[in-house]
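Re: your question about UvrABC system protein C

S., sorry for the slow reply, the queue was backed up all week. Below is exactly what I fed in.
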Amino acid sequence: MEASFYSPETYSQLPDAPGVYKYYNEDQELIYVGKAKSLKKRVASYFVKNSGVNYKTRRMVKEIRKIEITLVNSELDALLLENNLIKKAHPKYNILLRDDKTYPYLLLTHENFPRIFPTRKMIKGRGTYFGPFASVKAMNNVLDLIRNLFTIRTCKLDLSPYKIAEQKYKVCLEFHIGNCLGPCEGLQGEPAYLRDIEQAKQILKGNLGIPKGFFKTRMQEAAERYEFELAQRFKDKYDLLEKYQAKSMVVNPSIKDLDVFTIVTDEKLAFVNYLKIKNGSIHLTKTVELKKRLDESEEEMLITAIIRLRDQFQSESPEILINLELEEEIEGLNIATPKIGDKKHLIDLSLKNAKFYKKEKALALGEVQDKKSRVLKQLQADLSLQELPDHIECFDNSNIQGTHPVASMVCFLNGKPAVKEYRHYHIKTVEGPNDFASMTEVVGRRYKRILEENKPLPKLIVIDGGKGQLSSAVEALKEIGIYGKVPIIGIAKRLEEIYFPEDSYPIHIDKKSEALRLLQRVRDEAHRFAITFHRDIRSKNAIGTQLTAIEGIGNETADKLLKHFKSVKKIQQARLEDIEVVVGKHRAEKVYQALNEKSSD
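Result:
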């Protein structure tokens, strides 16, 4: 298997063989990974076809600057290699499988008197991992079953033979309540303990028949010895396994190991359900969401999901059932689409789960959209607005005792913060603490710029403050000629009063109203954004002033020192020679002397 590089212009030189191709952009960033039965035909299809190719694919092709290929022996090898490369690089044009969480495993440790416990980290050499489990609940069900059937230790003690012989340990509460047989004190031998571990291992593998046979034999042997109490305990454990197995039995037990995959799609997403069947029981069920990137077909998305999910859940089932008819068989994968019988019932069950997941997603999205729409419509009604206020901008000033006056503007689109549209403002034309004049300046600057850039005006402007601040903002809108084109209100903090221009009396919105809560959220976000900015400015100026207060040290020198040493404290701790390297001997002596005199005081 060898990698070779090509330019987009030389795609016709690619071999007519199975493999994986990788597309890179001009920044040498991997943007797409694909697999093909014939690299030459598949890659050529991107550059030769024009009609029927969607916009996203054409956009990707324009970005391609380099093609890298890797030859493999079969189409299945290509699928597996493609999956590994996508997992590592996450190229932006590949199908996105929305399932990034880590899954739990049960670990059977490699140590004296092995333990079984849950983990999400796989560390090579630590033991044998079973899973992953689709949910913590499913994992705990298996773990609880094992702990009810066998007395397996839960402590972390090193039970080396010589430590047990030296009697380094004492039995704990688990021994006294019957959950452990005390191997730490030598009360249980390792051969007997390992017999239980072997049966537990079979359960972890999904082979319930072997431990059932184990308990049945032990029960019969105890009964033959007239040890009826012991026989009853083995019978209880046998019944527990029967009950556990009966819960998950869905088809004829003669159906052994197989995987079931079904897919349903809409315009942008696909939903794939996976059922893992072992010995006629559902061993695992999982539904995932896939996001289309290049308008992929159902078949492409299903094959992608099959490879990724089998890899993720470590399935080696020899047979795969799906709900689609594939155009071509994939060599190395035994894929079938049953039409009748128990296997068709499994397809129907899986498809039912996939459709249910899709419906739940649509309902959840609809509820979110409905809530946003409802709140905005309520706000429109409460403020008597002509248009739905799906674009709101809010302004706030911040200064403490007149120092470093700044302002902020926050933007909400469809009722949600649009953080990229937030703006900070340094007050340029106003001297001293004048909130009204500052508001006039920033509102004027904001909408003059909007008009110059020919961008859309908001559907509602909110001013954090009462009549005075609102009047100042109105003055700015009048100066640039948009007063009356955009609704504007002021919201006073104390009583949550809403002020309108040229109206002396405020209105009050019901305190429980979702519309008022949205306005409060917008106002509070503007206030937070302004305060944070103001604190940053004050902090930087305070540090700079400490240095510029030294005779002969200006802003440029102070900036150099702070850039190099990061803080005044680190400058104070530095050696004179280190400061000299940054600002020269003369200035360094002044800084060193001034800061160290201050320290000694």
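The first strand starts at residue 3 and ends at 6. The first helix runs from residue 39 to 48.

Happy to talk it through on Thursday.
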